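Researcher: I'm comparing several assemblies side by side, and this is the next one on my list. It has 615 residues spread over three chains. Same procedure as the others: predict the full complex and return the structure.
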Amino acid sequence: MSREEYQVPTGSGSPAVGTGSFGASAPRDYAADGGGTMYYICGDCSVRVPLEKGAAIRCQKCGARVLYKERTKRMVQFEAR
Amino acid sequence: MPHKPPTAEELERRKIVGINEETITDVSSTDYPGHYPGEDHSWDIEAFRRGFRIEFHKNDPFEASFSLIGIDASIANAFRRIMIADIPTLAIETVFINNNTSVIQDEVLSHRLGLIPFKGGHKGLHKFLKWWRRPSDESQVNNSYYDYNTVSLRLEVKCEHNEKAAPGETDPTKLYKHAHVYARDIEFCPVGRQSKYFSGDDAIAPVNPDILIAKLRPGQEISLSMHMHKGVGSDHAKFSPVATASYRLMPVIKIERPILGADAEKFARCFPRGVIALEKVTKKEAAQKGSGYEGHEGEFKAVVADPMRDTVSRECLRHEEFRGKVKLGRRRDHFIYLVESTGQWESDAIFLEAVAHLKKRAQDLEKQVINMVR
Amino acid sequence: MPRAKAKKEEPVEAGSDVDMEEAPTSHQPENTDDMSVDQDDNDEEEGFEEDEEDEEDDVQRVRLLPGSTPTAASFEFLNEGHTLGNALRYIIMKNPDVEFCAYAIPHPSEAKMNVRIQTFEGTTAIQALQKGLQDLQELCDIVTDKFIDARERYAATTSS
């Protein structure tokens, strides 16, 4: 499975080589642009939960303590084999 | 020493593969020069033309059946193998997944998409579209997709609640919109000259629009685009133009001594329906001395009606009452083909393409041999 | 406006994505540049170029193996298998000047097929191989003709 490798976003750096070139832009970490807010998915009620750095790991809606990471926003490439 | 040419019966006998209760006999062909002293079996194109016959049994787009009679197994097998592994078709090769929140994993979804057979305008598929080859320079991959070697598809489905659903409804397809993702939801995105070759009825589309790809629940989404390329079955089975391309040898049933009355009915039941028919013993036959029919006028006798329908189960050889009365076999040079297309080609066209392919291979190799000597 | 050899408008993915500026330059669509590379609008539409098949033709796929004499030779075919091997073996064995012919695939993970030909005096193994390939082509022509005939006959009987 040729899941594209992670590439550090270089901004203006030299062009990256390798299979990643088809990959879409690598979005910045939420931590970088969202002032430390990351979004998770509640394992119980599936609501999108914003979490600050150091906040209690808990769904604000239902109080469930199991949160899942969101799926990557990047395009992922697969061979149909 | 003068040699007697073989009789017609002898030639006929040589063509039969014997099938006994537990064993088979005379499997290999013997029609080679030097095998029978004094007989000439050298390759003669005119003799082949005279002796070779093709008969059609069925010719539908998705299923063709025909017999090649008077050809060697090595050639017949080459055609069969080429149909399965060497005739190119277009199939999904790469999947670019933007989002997939369904329960089916990206890898599995991609694999399922790859296996969907597609159809499209024949001229565009077979003439216009060319091979795509991965560039040796990996960084040039994105510059290697052209309208003549890549077909783009998209699949964008989002499942939502259906407000109009009746209260108490339990059927997910009515309760939600797009609960099921079908092959028909795949959208063809023509690029460049593709719109000329693949428009209207000739558009690239799944052969069967009802193939279920995934199931969704409200909030789940599949969003992806795909690239199709030409490929051959030897690379991956998804590229094979046929679901089935097989042959079997024509069965031979020889009733050597009469099977009469209740035995005849039992004998018929040993075979698939229609293979054995029951006929009344005529007055003339009954009068014939030594025929085995004496005094049986009006009784039923078993006759072979349609050996092609036989499965050669050998059931009749298991019963004591038929011992020595029947001989089973198969005709070594009679190949009954069954070709089932997956839809990108017509079934009969696949065979013709296979023959053309073998010719092309021989032609190319002949050039290579000449080149080798030089 | 269909453009001959137009680059496929690939960066659907890239374009719809967030934060385009953050992507490495190689990730960004190079639209303006390569769209103008092959603008060959006058390209004859029916002219299906047969170019890309030639590159495979250039490599020599048949080789005479060491130890071969004119009348007894082994050939090595690259990228051939049972499909052609057995068909070729049959048609060469039908040649009365051939004493012996056999094919083998020495190892299943190597895409190689060997053919051994021994002939009687008066001809050579190479000639026998060449004749075999020619006979195979003639055979294919007859099969095609008879197949088309049989199909027409069948269509005539079923359409009425």
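Model: For your comparison table: Chain C touches chain B through 65 residues (CB under 8 Å).
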